[in-house]
Amino acid sequence: MSNRQLIRPDLDDIRQAPAGGGRRKTPPPESTAAEAFYYIKQMNSGTPMVVVLNDGEQLQGVIEWYDRICIK
User: How many Cα atoms sit within 13 Å of 65 on the Cβ side?
Assistant: First the structure.
């Protein structure tokens, strides 16, 4: 058996290393197609929807079609 020495990094190197968690940036919502999938699913099933406006007014109905900036 040979005596091997364990090589450890210096603690100063570890403390100075950036603490990046390695988390990926989340993609913008427009590029995930999740919103489009949701609207298509609601249109096909005819799910009753309620949209609450900023002043508290509620609009009730089903989604007939949608666009990037508009829902009918």
Answer: 1
Which tokens sit at 3? 């005596």
50 DSSP assignment: E
- Candidates 60, 58, 66; CA nearest to 41 is 66
Each residue of 22-67: pLDDT tens digit?
Answer: 677 888 877 788 888 988 999 999 999 999 999 999 999 999 988 8
8 A C-beta contact, residue 41 and residue 49 = no
pTM of the model: 0.53
Domains of the chain by residue range:
48-72
